[in-house]
Structure formats: structure tokens, C-alpha cells
Amino acid sequence: MSSLAHDQNENTSANPQAGNLGGEIEQLEDIRPVPRVTIQAFCETESVSRTLEMTAQDRRMAKAHVKVHMGGIAAAVDFYSNAPTPNLIVVETKNSGSELINELGLLSDVCDSETKVVIIGVLNDIVMYRDLISKGISEYLVAPVSMADFMAVITNIYVSPESAVLGRTIAFIGAKGGNGSSTICHNIAWAVSSTYQTDVVLADTDLAFGTANINLDQDPAQGIAEAVFSADRVDEILLDRLLSKCAEHLRLLAAPSTLDRAYDFDKKAFSQVIDVAQRGVPYVIIDLPQQWNSWTMDILTGADEVVITACPDLTNLRNTKNLVDKLIELRPNDAKPKLILNQVGVPKRPEINVNDFIAPLDLQPLAIIPFEPALFGTAANNGQMISEADHKHAVSDSFDKIAQILTGKAEFKQEKSRSFDIRALLKRKKS
Q1: Average pLDDT of 192-202?
Q2: Please, which pLDDT band fits residue 185 given cuts at 50, 70 and 90?
Q3: What is the three-state SS of the chain?
Q4: Distance CA 249, CA 192 (A)
Q5: Separation between Cα atoms, residue 48 and residue 147, nearest integer Å
Q6: How far is CA 80 from the centre of its chain?
Q7: Tens-place pLDDT, residues 300-354
Q8: Packed helices 147-158 and 21-29: angle between N→C axes, nearest 10 degrees
Q9: pLDDT in tens, 370-398
Q10: Ramachandran bin of 180, using left for φ above 0, alpha for ψ from -120 to 50, beta for the remaining angles
């Protein structure tokens, strides 16, 4: 972070890589969503203005209302002479010493007492930093600043250290119906909860045709429908009543899987439910239906990780490419979506070679899961996960490895993929 540390020596140099977006994605992964606050910035340079504008568009800032102006402290004083001040004012200045103190005195005359102020300056001086903090400034950042710097400062100001850390959200979606995205999602939720003994909420958002209740052998009387249609009163107590316990560390927010009503939702219909779930567990894993509308876009945009399940055919390739391109556009400051290739090696079915499939996507798959109808069919009919049906099977091991990568327990290495030998796979099936 570019702000001066309290125990640094004087005149330490600013980090020249602060504005490097490539390295910044990793820093942003550790930044949690910014709370619902109003922020107004007054910049003197285009570089800082651009950084703050980009930050305002990041998914982690979805709840905050940000407005960026030019003009520095003088413009802020003039603006607030006739307008109320927001929760946070960010001002850029090239001044220091008595000139800066005089400017801040003018700003304090037009600020509400509850308003916080963050300064972006050019001088990296520990004595000045301590003086500004003693005068009530919330933070001083040394330009150039990064998006991670800015978001970290906001969370440091408005999120109490005693507050529980929000759980991470992982959203699964299929590139085409019937790809097995839901089955993979449910097995990954099981693997995360059982392997790491950590609490997981699995949310089945396909209210009409969801399968999580069947796959996990559950028949709850209530579930996600009650939460979504009562979103204005959802809290931890209500959500806890709606969750079905599937295992020691896995709870399910089940879909009703009935057609007694139409399930039409607004863009933010699931936001409150997911927010509440995040406050209670380390991981919220979301099973999305294969459809494209405002609320699925909103969930995918806001998720910490997105996993696309595809089969190796032309329609899947087209849909996966469209999904990847759109999600990169919606999530410019996040890592690319993850890819799982499923049902590979179906006998007598023409398939696109794995290397040919991934080449236009510029993605390496997390896993290549072979077509195993007996294994998956038996598990589904018995209401079991794959690891319960056959924990020694290679597919079960694949799910464990995917869980390791998605939870950060193992690093996903973008290695050059080997050619997938379908003939060898079919030979194994016959033996």
C-alpha cells in the first residue's frame, strides 16, 4: 500500500509498480467488498482521476457511490460551500507544509463533522504523515496510487477489525444445458467442506429445476425461494432456519424444484441472500441455471470466482467464448473465469480436441473429466457425491484438486496442456 507506514524512515520512495494492473489483480483478490458509503474525489492529475474512475467500476465497489471531480482541494471547498458532504472526501494535492494545512483548514470549515478525509499527495514524509493523522485526516496516500490502495483504505476506515470477514463466493454456470455444471458444483461444495472441514453454504438458484436437493438426498420444506421472496427481511436467523444440513460442514439452500409459480426476478433479487450467507461461512458456492438475464449477470459479476463447465463440441465452444469475453468485460480487474471440461470421450460422438477447444479461449482447464455414466448415474440415483460412491476413483481426485485450487490451498499452474487421447480413454472403458 502506498500510504506511509508509522514506523518507516523519512523520505522512503513510493512503489513504482503501484499502477501496474497486471500485478494488481493478485492484490485485489484479498480486498473484500466496500460497504455502502458515498465517496467524492477531487483530483489534480489525470492519472489519479483515471485510477479512481477505474476503481469505482470494480465489482467490489458495487455498493459504494463514487463521484470523481477535477480541481483538488480548492474545488472541494467551493463545491461544499453549497452542498452537503459525503461519507468520504478524497482530495489530491501537490502542496505540503503550511500551504497544505491552510487548505485543509478551509476544507474543514465546509465539512460535516462525520465526514472522513483522505489525502493523495506527492511528498513521502513520515513527520508530515503523523501531523496530518493527528489533525484528524483518516489517511495519507503517496501518488501514484493503485486501485488496491484506494479500496484497502476505504475498508480500513469503514470496516471494523472486529467484524467477521466475508466469505468468498464461487459461482458455477454451464456453457450449455446438460453439461453437468450442477453436478460438478455440488461435488466441489462437498469436497471443500469435507476435505478442509470448513463451513460451506451451497445455494441452488435454479428454482424451477434445481437438482441439489436430489443429489444431496435432501427434502427440505423450505429453502432459497422463501429467502428470495422475503429478501427485505432476510437476516442470519431467518437464513439459518432455511438452510438444510447435508453434512457436518455443508448446508444447502435448496431450490423448491416446482412449477407452481413463475420465477421472474429483478437484477438484485439474490444480493441480500448472498450477502447474509457470506457473513456466516467462509465459502458460498452458487449453482446457477444455464440462462442469461439480469440477475445471473449480477451474481457472476459479483462472485469472487466463476467456473464455466463445458463439453467439447462446437456449440459449447461458441458459448464458452462468449461467456469468457463478457465476463472479462464485466470483471476487468479479476482473474479470468475458470474452465472445466466435462463428459469428454463419449463413445462414437465426434468431439473437438481439447487443445483445439481451449486455443481460442486462452484458458487452461482446471480439470478434464471423462465420460463416466455408470459412476455419475449410480451416485445420482443414490443421492450421493462421487467421493461417497467411489472415493478412490480418479474423478473424485479431480474434484479434490479443483477444490484445492478454488480455495487457494493449491496453485493453479497454467501449463501447456497435453493432447487428450480419446482412443486411450475408450480402450480403458472396454477393458
Answers
A1: 93
A2: very high
A3: CCECCCCCCCCCCCCCCCCCHHHHHHHHHCCCCCCCCEEEEEECCHHHHHHHHHHHCCHHHCCCEEEEEECHHHHHHHHHCCCCCCCEEEEECCCCHHHHHHHHHHHHHCCCCCCEEEEEECCCCHHHHHHHHHCCCCEEEECCCCHHHHHHHHHHHHCCCCCCCCCEEEEEEECCCCCCHHHHHHHHHHHHHHHCCCCEEEEECCCCCCCHHHHCCCCCCCCHHHHHCCHHHCCHHHHHHHCEECCCCEEEECCCCCCCCCCCCCCCCCHHHHHHHHCCCCEEEEECCCCCCHHHHHHHHHCCEEEEEECCCHHHHHHHHHHHHHHHHHCCCCCCCEEEEEEECCCCCCCCCHHHHHHHHCCCCCEEEECCHHHHHHHHHCCCCHHHHCCCCHHHHHHHHHHHHHCCCCCCCCCCCCCCCHHHHHHHHHC
A4: 9
A5: 10
A6: 35
A7: 999 999 999 999 999 999 999 999 999 999 998 899 999 999 999 999 999 999 9
A8: 20
A9: 999 999 999 999 999 999 999 999 999 99
A10: left
CA dist 251 and 269 (Å) reads 21
Grid cell listed for 216: 444431496
Residue 245, C-alpha cell as written in the block: 444440513
Separation of alpha carbons 94 and 76, rounded Å: 15
Please give the Cα distance from 51 to 49 (Å, whole number): 5
Name all domains of the chain by residue range, CATH numbers in brackets. Answer: 29-158 (3.40.50.2300), 168-430 (3.40.50.300)
In 3-state terms, what secondary structure has residue 271?
A: helix
- Read off the pTM: 0.78
Please check whether residue 365 is in contact with residue 157, taking contact to mean a CB–CB distance below 8 angstroms.
no
Is residue 237 helix, strand or coil?
helix
